[in-house]
Amino acid sequence: MKTTNNHAATARKILLGLGLATLASAASAADLVISNWDGYMAPDAMDAFKAATGNGGEVVKHATNEEIMGKLVASGGKGYDVVFVSSPFAEVLHNLGLTEAIDASKVPNLANLYPEAAALAYDPGNTFSVPYTWGTTGLCYRSDLVKAEPASWNDLLKPADDIKGKTTMLATDRWLLAAGQLADGFSVNEVDPAKMEQVKNTLIEAKKTLLAYDDTTFYAKLVSGEAVMVQAWDGWCNYGITDNKDIKYVIPKEGSDLWVDTMVVMKASENKDAAFQFINFMLDAKNHGWAAQNILYKVPNKAAMDSLPAELSATYPNMAMPVAELTKFEVLRDVGDAQKEYSRIVSEIKAAQ
Amino acid sequence: MAPALVWLIGLMVIPCGLVLALAFFQRGIYGGVDYTFTLENFTRVFDPLYAGIFLNSARIAGIATLIAVVIGYAAAYAIASCRQSLQPVLLFFAVLPFWSNYLIRTYAWIVLLNREGLVTQLLRWFGYTGEPPSMLYTEGAVIAGLVYNYLPFVILACYAPLSRMNPELAEASRDLGGSAFTTFRRIILPLTLPGIAAGAVFVFVLSIGNFVTPALLGGGRFQMIGNLVYDQFLTANDWPFGAALSMALIAIMMLLLFAQALATDRASGRTAPVREDG
Question: Would an 8 Å CB–CB cutoff place B49 in contact with chain A?
Answer without folding.
Answer: yes
